[in-house]
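Example pasted here:
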Amino acid sequence: MWNSIINKFYNDNKELKDILICHSRAVADKALAIASAHPELNIDKQFVEEAAMLHDIGIVKTDAPGIHCMGTEPYIKHGILGAEMLRAEGLDRHARVCERHTGAGLTAKEIEERKLPLPVADYMPESIEEQLICYADKFFSKSHVEHEKTLEQAERSIAKHGDEGLERFRRWHALFG
């Protein structure tokens, strides 16, 4: 299912498609390994794989030439853009993962204080699957797709954007780590 959706939006940009699939596969594999290690959490593994493979679908509409994104929107909007794309495909549950995975989730307060170019709202991962994908995503970048970050590297990256996100990430690490 995810492959046909990626193909629909990425056929004209093979470099970006390769980056997206490599990054998303790494996130999906990490999330699935965590789900398998925690059967007590009753995680929907099929949904996790699908949503992890689609969580960054919106990057195609952003301007980030370093990773072959040749769109016009600021990169930070990729989650919102991806959510719009997936809702148009009838995938509302998957769309929620897109819009809620940026950083360690974003609150309306954080958006206002940091003057981010996003609609002011709370974009916090709520379901266990949303939280898991957001957590797993923090260990992989799209500029170094072959490398998994250490816990310390992931924390340093999140800490650049404030203590609230770092605290959320650490709670997830206590749950999933």
